[in-house]
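can u pls check wat happens w/ KG4
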Amino acid sequence: MILSIESSCDDSSISITEIATKRLIYHKKISQELEHSKYGGVVPELASRLHAIALPAILEECKPWFDQLKAIAVTNEPGLAVTLIEGVVMAKSLSIALNIPVLPINHLKGHIYSLFIGTEAQFPLTVLLVSGGHTQLIEVASHNKMTTIATTMDDSYGESFDKVAKMMGLGYPGGPLIEKLAHSGDASRFAFTVPLWQSPLIAFSYSGLKNQVRLAVEANDAADYPDIACSFQKTATDHLIQKLKKYFKSHKPQRFAIVGGASANLYLRTEIEKLLVGYNASLLLAPLEFCSDNAAMIGRCAVEEFLSGNFINHNEIVVNPRCKL
Ligand code: KG4
Ligand code: ZN
């Protein structure tokens, strides 16, 4: 079995995965959303201190499996430096105490494996990763060949929801709050411009849209927020759809997946489903509980790393906060 640790942002999570069956044996996650809510976003220093309390508490529950562990996996990139280090230090300590190797895991690769918890991976696959830290289009040929096709030039899709929620004083994380507010709104009320709609680039950008929304929030009052939320959600999603259409002109999709915390957004899911009908392509989605950060996806990815023999010694692991795929 592999014990896996995730602490790249504001979720403290540990899982145990059986190598032979790829089955998830144990999984627990303690989210810090409430603690960060009053600041309208994640405060890294606070997140780090909360991980230092939550991770050892979860680890206590894993002791019955310690003698069956073959490796310790840990998210070491990308993420917040001060929170990644909490998981990495725990992985190093366990590696020394149990005399087993470490498997460093890329968090973005982990999100892709949220699709395959307990099952075999199906590649090739075109993946849209939408989270708080990333908005990326990725071609996955195999476990070792993942190519980033497009990325955001500034804010991410999830982050833009967080920022709009903050402007409205709704709290954090903003994604579910804005989605809920949008249910009672009218998407046609505010005509926000779709980012980069005239640009031939296959890339994403959310800072301009964020500023359009800021002006609308300032010029209106709370009774208009559902319409602003609904118009914003539509424009933010239209942007993804437009760029996907552009990409699909030269790369017809066969199997497509949406992963990351913001892949829980039902409006986004529906719009992508509609888009894929035209290509006769199938859509893969992770179970809702594994869309946002969790150690189960890290453990599933770790099985592949284990089978590829990508172990390292505890003193070789480094934290790469800004690393890409
Ligand atoms: O994957 P994740 O847990 O953390 C990162 O790796 O960043 O994603 C968290 C992000 C947050 O920005 C949150 O607001 C967004 O996912 N999110 C959503 C929804 N649920 C979570 N965004 C839009 N709609 C949602 N329903
Ligand atoms: Zn994530």
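Residues 35 and 51 are 12 Å apart (CA to CA).
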